[in-house]
What we know:
The protein is of the alpha/beta class. The chain is 44% helix and 14% strand. It has helices at residues 4-20, 25-36, 51-61, 77-81, 115-118, 122-127, 162-165, 179-188, 204-215, 221-236, 246-262, 270-281, 296-305; strands at residues 41-44, 66-70, 82-87, 92-97, 104-108, 129-132, 135-138, 144-149, 170-172. The strands form three sheets. It has a five-stranded parallel beta sheet with strand order 2-5-8-1-9. The chain has a two-stranded antiparallel sheet with strand order 3-4.
Amino acid sequence: MPSTEMKSTIVDVIAAANKIILGKDEQIRLALACLLARGHLLIEDLPGVGKTTLAHTLARLLGLQFSRIQFTSDMLPADVIGISVFDRERSEFKFLPGALFSHVLLADEINRATPKTQSALLEAMEERQVTTEGETRPLPDPFFVIATQNPSSQIGTFPLPESQLDRFLLRIELGYPDRQAERTLLESGGRREQLPELAACFSPAQLIPLQKQAAAIHVSSALLDYVQTLIEATRHSPMFVHGLSPRAALALLAVARAWTFIDNRSMVLPEDVQAVLPSVACHRLRLANSANHARPEDIAKLIHAIPVT
């Protein structure tokens, strides 16, 4: 359980983010849980609903070094990782790090890049390092990728391969704001201009211990049984092409622990697992009767079909 001081800080982060991203408290909490669980976040939605603003907001509130890459179809892997240039004075090549070398990387419209460029993120997201020109270079700690993705039906998009999707701990949608939140936006002219005024609530050095505390939240044997039952149900359900992998099961536990940590509780409950399961599972499961990924309502059916014992 976090200390009173750290709990207050987490509450401050959520409250400040809610002033920028109006009416999206659950999505803000899920994004923060993803970071505390040392994962990466995929936000899929229509342009203009606040995906980029959410990434900027979290980076500023958490005091993290931030960089942004606007993905396009002509981008190359070196544009992401960095390149070596020849230093004439020293008669040697010098590596110039790309935008990847930051605490928070916003990969904006990631599915507008070709698969070759998308693959430049695979090693970085899984092993938190990059290998280029025979040398392995570690990335900053913490390292958090927030990728935005336009719906695949839009022109100029390349579907993310399953291996790339699986690197994202969570996938969320922001959706349209409710009527009151949109009215506030219309009256104020938007909230992005308030981003420079946001003050960091804590530093990267304080974030790392929080991630360790979140990972240490207690999970009972009965809760593990429930998680295993949910995972096995996806593997045997005729609704999906294939079920969730062991890595997905570990992801579910990690996010459930972080969700519990944010709520300042010391033990994961079935309700915590149920709250985060759609965001963990939907992008990892394909429906058997179509080429689409699962939707939250599909996961809700699965949850309702499995009793909590």
